[in-house]
Structures are given as C-alpha cells and as structure tokens.
Amino acid sequence: MRTHLALLERDGILERLTVHRASPGKPAHAYRIAEAAGVFLSSAYAPAALHLLEALQERLPPHEVTALLGSVGRRLALRHRTTSARLRSRISDAAAALTELGGASQVSEQPATFVLTSEGCPLAAMTGDHLAACGILEAFVSEIVAAPVRHRCAHGDRARCIFEIAREHAAPDASGHSGE
After folding, report:
1. Which of 37, 76, 149, 167 is most buried when burial is the number of CB atoms within 10 A of its CB?
2. What is the pTM of this model?
C-alpha cells in the first residue's frame, strides 16, 4: 500500500498531509487528491475533444481539418523534442513519449522500415468515430522523429496505433554511416 501511495504522490495525483495525534508516536498521514490531478480525473476532456473535432469537421474543408490536427500533434510534441542524431534513438524517444500519453509503445525493425506500435490508442475516444484524429498522433510522432511517418492504425474494439518510418530517412553522418 505504501508503495502505491508513494507512486501516486510522486506522479502528483495525491498530496500527503500530516495528521497530528494527541498521543506520542509516529505522525499519521492522510492523503487527498492533488488539485492538479483534476485534469487526469476529469471525464469531460474526451467528449469535449470529440465534439470540438465534430464542430471543426462541420465548419472547415477536410484539408484544413487535416492541417489543423497536424498542427495540434506538432505542438503536443514540443516538450518531447530530442537531440539525438540517430533515427533509431529518435524513434525510441517517440515511443517513450507515446507511452507517456497512454499507449504502451514498442519499436520493431523491418527491412525497409521501423514500426512503432502502441497497444491502445491514447486518442481512442476520438479516433473510433473520426479517423482523421489519427493525424494528431501521426504529426506528434513525425515531429519527434524528424522524419515522415505514415500511420497504419488499427481501429475497433482494441484500437492500436501503428506508425511506419522508412529507413531511408536515416541521414548519413560525416563518415557516411546511416545513423541508425
């Protein structure tokens, strides 16, 4: 129990309060939900985002919605920028960032591509009905990887993010090494 409480406190979900006892002994602790945790616990964000996307799709042409969702993804990626010169490292950084958003991610390698797969989609509440929302995470990954990314997401009951990055985007360094 203490381990779980410590993790929740570390992650900013709980705040520890010291309870003073009338009798001598170790001080007791009480916990309360941290004020900042309201963002994590609110059930309004997913429906609000879904309705916002629907409103955008009603009012804007498809190409403008696509551009706007890409801009959202790139802005979301700003705090996850990487300085690695190696494509494989940047893809690993993107996988870690996607995991932080809520999709347990892993990277696999194929002859011509790297494939970043996330078990579960952090935006499943939106992408289930609006496939265009995949563009947010595609732009997010592309911004971190600093290379073009193509999404091949799986939708339905078990939504999964799947992103392909071509190995050809591994820029060679001064020695001619591909940077992978």
Report:
1. 149
2. 0.75
